[in-house]
Every structure is written in structure tokens, then in C-alpha cells.
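Reopening closed ticket. The problem is back. First fold of the pair:
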Amino acid sequence: MNTPLLSICIATYNRAGFIGETLDSIIPQLDDDVELLVVDGASTDNTEEVVRKYAQKESRIRYIRLSAKGGVDQDYDRSVELARGEFCWLFTDDDLLKPGAVAAVLAAIKKDYDLVIVNAEVRGRDLSVTLGRRRMIIQDNKTYAPSSMEHLFIDALHYLSFIGAVVIRRSIWLSRERALYFGTEFVHVGVIFQKPLPGPALIIAEPYVIIRFGNGQWTPRSFDIWMFKWPKLVWSFKDISDGAKLSGTCREPWRNFRKLISQRGEGCYNLPSYQKYFSTMPVHVLWKSCAWLIACFPRSIIIGYHYLYSGIKGPESRAFFNNRFRKRRG
């Protein structure tokens, strides 16, 4: 095939039960300007069998199985290295594209943007319930000049924890530091914000992506990710002001008892977490005592409070809450 303009790069691991549906949403949108690259981090289920069946029928799909799992950051970086397109869409292995998504992205990158961020709607794990109609609450596309990277950071940082939103010029990705961000879970955020982009960025307001909420493979590690890894990454960017960083997260969110309570309600914070992160930490004994009490506090009470709160806010919020805690309960 000719050199494609766009490579849809999926890094996957043990997603045999979901990746077929993802591919079904993408394949009808492929044309000669687009390739679909699936990089498998040595899955131990039948992901390989599922993807190879699609690749046998569609010449624009490439399947590459790695000898070992490198982790989400390394495997996405490897997918960009192996891609042939001028741009790479770092898509996820269990979410879906709506019809027209690829055409919209192709139209955008032909206008010479270096980065395109695609909005999404959020659905429950089985996709039957809509939890949020627009993950980014914007109605019109927004453009950011290289000099406006801080505005992009403020507007898009929270959403960019979702890697499937990112379409980036491959040459920019390869020219930047990546290994520094391996293990952060958000290599794409590090690549984007380590320094200003050479050219403009675009946020597409239309939600062309469907996020399958509550299906993340990192749920068991979410306390470590959101309390430690994410803030460390956000606060590492030298060209972003402290005020902008605060809009994303404080330096040490684990010090905030409300956040600990929320993490406890979600089942991410418990006594083993306390022992691992706080038992030997040199902090005030009163703070430690409160952190220990939160780790012991019955989740059912926290869940009941949040359910009442979400009921007051409305049915969409309640549906979001139900999916969130049903997935994590146990």
C-alpha cells in the first residue's frame, strides 16, 4: 500500500473479549490514507487469534506481537516507531470510533495541525448506558497556537488522561524525549507538554470516540496513579506555570483527606495502601492517624453518601456513579 497519512495505533494486552468490537468500529472507515496497526504486548489470552482473523481479511491492518509486555507507555511508543503514517492516532483497545471519526481527523490533519484531540462520549462497560455525552464540555472546535500551550494544558489536561483522544504528528513524537515518561502511564502527556509544539493544535468538539467506562486494566493501581504518578508528571513540565498545574492537580493530592475518602469509596484506598504508602512516611502522627481511619472506614457508608449526592444531581450523574462503583466493588 502507499504511505498512509494516518496510522491508527493500538497497543493491546489481553483484550480478546473487546478488541474485535473496537476493530469493527474502525475497519469500515479505513481507506488508502489510513492504516490500522495493532501492537500486542505478548497477550496470554487469544487476542492474537482475534486480531489475525481481521488482518487476514483487511490488508490495511498490521498485527505485530512483541516478545514481552513493555507496559502501556513503552508499547504505545513502540507502535509509533513501527507506524508508517505521517500522523499517529493513539487509540485504545476496548473503545469505539463513531462513523465519520476518521474522516474528521483526516480533514483536520490536512490543515497542518501538529496535534489533534478528539472529543468523546462516555458509556458504561457494556455500552448500553450513556454516562456523559461530551467528555469535554465544548460545542465548537478550538485551535491553539504554539504560544498558547498553557491554555491547551488548562483546557485539555484532565481529558488527556485518556490516550485514545490523541492524534499527533509522528515526526514530533519521535523527536521528543519519551523514555523519561515510561512508567508514568501517560507517556503521551509527557511528549505533548515537555515543550511547546512547533505548530498549532486542535480540539475537535464533536464526540467521535465512545469510551467504555469502568474497563481500565489499571484499576488496581489507580491509587498509585492518581495520588502519586499523575501529579509528579503534571508538576514536571518546566514551561507550564504553577497556576496552570494546579488546575490539573495539586503536588501531593494524597494529603487531602477528601481525596483519600473518595479513593476509599472507590475501593482504591485501603489498609494495604496505607501500609505501603504512609506507614513509614515522615508526616505528622495526627495526619497518619486520620489516614489510617479513612483506610478502615466502611465503604458502604461512603457509597451511600455519594449515591444520595448523585441522585440530587440527576439521572446521568447517577448512572455514572452506578457504573463506577459497580465496577470497583469488592
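Second fold of the pair, where the issue appears:
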Amino acid sequence: MLPKEIIKKIQRIQIRTNRMVSDVFSGEYQSVFKGRGMEFDEVREYQPGDEVRDIDWNVTARMGHPYVKKFVEERELTVMLLVDASGSSRFGTRNQFKSELAAELCAVLAFSAIRNKDKVGLIIFTDTIEKFVPPGKGSRHVLRVIREILYFQPRGEKTDISLALDYLNRVTRRRTVTFLVSDFQATGYEKILRITNKRHDLIAVRTTDPREEELPPVGFVRLRDAETGGEITVDTSDPDLRERYRRGRREEKEAILKLFRSSDIDCIEVSTDKPYVTALMRFFKEREKRFR
């Protein structure tokens, strides 16, 4: 039985995000994603005017004359939500935790998908695969997805993005639109990120909180790593320390964004102190321009 506060939170998210989808995001989602996917249909003999790049060389070699692959437009897309539930996601100093921000943003994407008759699936991960909800349709299914993101109690504390992407590639046979929602406080996932983006339309959603970007000058404080449990005491009144911290976080962010750009992966950056609607709209508008 769900606690009353979780039920109320789900209801608030449902009402708020449904209104956003109706007023703003449904048309944007459809213009960006619908009709973008192509799936294999059959092979047939080559005909004058066919694209050379569509030739199936294996079948051609067996049959002794050219055959081409025929594709049809996908009428139904599958949206996969890969949500990081590690210890660092349960942090927030402004309006909400990063995990709550992730849940609400995922709700908007999920309701946009089902309004366009697409399927939605969920993978919750830490340094293990915590939960897999197979793709499905309908409002009840989306509410289950939101409930899992908000209420699920993970076993792990650390982050393994490579594990999550490898699992996605094993459980999904068809191409999907995948939103990877994380603060990306992890390493060693660069190769599998690029491989996954070739198989799927992979979009990174980076969640942040202002206090992760810079330290306030409040004297001695004890900082705890939410994923490793390690603790350290620092003097935040030291301007050199604050500057080193700020510079380190900035360099870390730049490295992550550089990786996304070099891998041809779109990134949506959202923060607990700013409306995510602005970031989502910017993402949809920029994508729509590229597809014109």
C-alpha cells in the first residue's frame, strides 16, 4: 500500500503534467519524433532508381544478382526511460530533490508518448538494474511508471551507466527513443554510450542542483558523498577552496557535454531551481529545426 503523501504527489504530477502535455508538449513531441523511425520490411530485387546504399550485399551474393532492403515508416514508437536512482539523485537544496525532478520530467515525456499512441518502458538503475517495466500503453501504465520512479527503494547507492545501457541493448530488439536521466556522476561509460546511440535515438537528461556547482561561504562543514559514504570536513570560508571546487565542477560539466557533442547525443540540462519546461521546449525546438 502506497503512503498517502506518495499518492498525493503522484496525483499532483498527473494533473500538472497532463495540463502541460495538452497545452504545450503533445504537438512538439509529435513533430520531433513521429515518422522519424524506419523499420525493415523485406528484401526484393533491385530496380532502376533504387538507392545503391539499400543493397543487401549478403542476399545479393547468394542470389547472384542485386537485392535491396525495403523499409517502412514506423507507426508506433517505443520510448524508454532510463532513470538513475543512485544516492546522489536523492539530493536537492531548492524546490525538490533531483529524483523528484526526474519523475516529473519523465511524466511529461511519458504522457506525451501515450497521447501519440506510443509505448513507454522504464529501467531504474544504480550500480545494478533495480527495476524493469516493459514498454506498455495507456494512462494506468504511465501512472505505474511514475509511481516506480517516485516510490521505488533502490538497493544500490552508486551509479553504473554502462550496466544500464548494456541492459537496454539486451532487452530491446527494435530501435527506441531513449531518455537517459542522470546526474552522470560516473565514469567508464563512453564506449557503450556511443554504441547505444547507433542502435537507439539516445537523449541525455542531466539533472543538477545549484549547491553541487559551488559552495556557500558558511564556515566549516562536513560533506558526505551520497554514493560512497565518504566524508570530509572543509572550510567553505576559504575563497581559494571555493574557487577550486567551482572550477573542478565546471570542468567536469564541460567534459560531459563535450562527450555528448562528440557522440552526436542531444542533452537536456535541468536543475532543481529552474522550471524544466524551458529546457524541454528548447530541446524540442532545436530538434525540429534540424529535421526540417
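Update: turned out to be a display glitch only; the data is intact. Residues 79 and 120 are 5 Å apart (CA to CA). The chain has a mean pLDDT of 87. Please close again.
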